[in-house]
Amino acid sequence: MSSLNNSPALWLEQWPLLKRDGHKYDRGHALIYGGVVMTGAARLAARAAQRIGAGLVTIAAPAESQIIYAQALESVIVRPVQGVDDWRILLADERRNAILVGPGMGTDALNKAIVLSALHTGRSCVLDADALTIFADEPQALFDALHANCVLTPHEGEFARLFPGLIGSNRSKVDRAVDAAKMAGCTMLLKGAETVIADTIGQCVVNNNAPPWLATAGAGDVLAGVILGLLAQKMPVLAATCAAAWLHGQIAHDFGPGMIAEDIVNGVPDALKSYKKLLWP
Fold first, then answer.
1. pLDDT tens digits, residue range 90-141?
2. Which residues are 189's β-sheet partners?
3. Residue 215 class from Cβ within 10 Å (0-12 exposed, 13-18 middle, 19+ buried)?
4. Rounded to an integer, what distance in angstroms lies between the CA atom of residue 137 and that of residue 8?
5. What's the pTM value of the predicted model, to 2 decimals?
6. Beta bridge mates, 31
7. Do residues 34 and 62 make contact, with C-beta atoms less than 8 angstroms apart?
8. Would you say residue 280 has pLDDT above 80?
9. CA distance 197 to 249
């Protein structure tokens, strides 16, 4: 299977341009399901979605952790949820046009319904971390609910749990990602030192600008948040995923060793300034 190397030339023309007379509602409303214990994951994703340009970001937080999110994220909307019914009420508002589920959410049985409810809206969805792990025992249930507006962002361990039939063969990472995207019916971002992005029609892009120090806690949550923020602004799915992966690696490369996940979030504005003439009218 052939692939392209990721670079801005692949996606800059599809970048969501800012309008001089625009307002925050033009730039989409990202919705994130937050966990109870590992609250940092959703917070990193929320900040990343904001930094990349989403007009509004809401975190749906279980009541027992709501105060943690509210105190840490002054410009993020925090809505309490107690179970699937409350979550579905938030999903009923179609202005929340891009959804992220998984970072820090936990793997109890309730969360399968949280994921499936998000997918059933048909809106842009990013599934990361626990949203993938909880379907390891029945991946077909997840595949049946996925659609073309979705992105899965597994690392190799999560990938092996969802696609055991693609492991242990001589197929390349590119071939595995392409096969998985077709099986799942959505865009696949298979993380690693070399990240492979594939869609359902066999298009494949390899991102290889990630330095070793990008392997740090929370970096994947930031990546998911950047994808989410671009999808909220209606950037096409494959282009948004490629752009997020490239920027993620470039920011890390520019920062250098000693970087932590928060540094990636804070590096987004400078990365975007490099393309100011192309991204602002």
1. 999 999 999 999 999 999 888 999 999 999 999 999 999 999 999 999 999 9
2. 197
3. middle
4. 38
5. 0.97
6. 58, 99
7. yes
8. no
9. 14
